[in-house]
Design brief:
Helices cover 82% and strands 0% of the residues. It has 209 residues and is mostly helical. It is globular. Keywords: Membrane, Transmembrane, Transmembrane helix.
Length: 209
């Protein structure tokens, strides 16, 4: 088998695995354990799991709209705690766990970019991490490798992750299932706009103090 064919087959297998994990994630919304699964998924996605918790958060919020914000809080708590676990992986076990995780997902190149961002401004880098399409696990592991201040990491993670999940919860609560296609198509644009506002606000506060 040629190298190109082997790589193509590998990508197909990964795509198939990703789809099965996606469907497995969504099935928890139809069980009594949806909230627990959401917390666990948010925790694991922050360090190694490929499926973002947004998909289960939306499914649960669609099923019981009045609990949308409760689910957002559960998702936020799991994500921040999972981020601390990712930080620990980067801090203590990067060569044994962190690097293999990055290599598996093919995001090692993004890791170098994130390290440069941490050197520039750790708080903004983590805050941006909660919204950008770059997998959050890259930022959590890199934070540990760079040994940024743990409280800076936790506070910035809490702000950004909560912001992301509560925006989804609010849109779901107000508009219901009909907002799903809009979120799927435009949420990255919404999140980038939020990040821009966050960064502008940060610098305004810095200039006034």
């Amino acid at each position: 088998m040629k190298y190109e064919e082997a790589m193509e087959l590998s990508q197909v297998k990964k795509a198939g695995l990703h789809r099965r994990l996606y469907e497995w994630t969504l099935h928890w919304a139809h069980t009594p354990y949806g909230a627990f699964a959401l917390f666990a998924l948010a925790f694991c996605e922050s360090s190694f799991f490929p499926i973002p918790p947004d998909v289960l958060l939306m499914a649960l919020a669609f099923s019981i709209p009045k609990k949308s914000f409760k689910y957002a809080a559960i998702c936020s708590a799991g994500s921040v705690l999972g981020g601390c676990f990712g930080y620990f992986i980067g801090y203590q076990f990067f060569e044994y766990l962190g690097l293999p995780i990055l290599n598996f997902y093919g995001i090692t190149d993004k890791f170098d970019f994130v390290k440069e961002e941490y050197n520039a401004n750790a708080f903004i880098a983590v805050a941006i991490a909660g919204f950008t399409p770059i997998p959050y696990k890259v930022f959590t592991i890199a934070a540990g490798v760079c040994k940024i201040n743990i409280w800076t990491f936790i506070i910035a993670s809490a702000v950004s992750r909560s912001g992301r999940f509560f925006i989804i919860a609010a849109l779901t609560y107000v508009f219901g299932p009909k907002i799903k296609d809009f979120i799927d198509k435009y949420f990255n644009i919404i999140s980038i706009a939020f990040v821009i506002l966050l960064v502008v606000g940060f610098f305004i506060i810095k200039l006034l103090t």
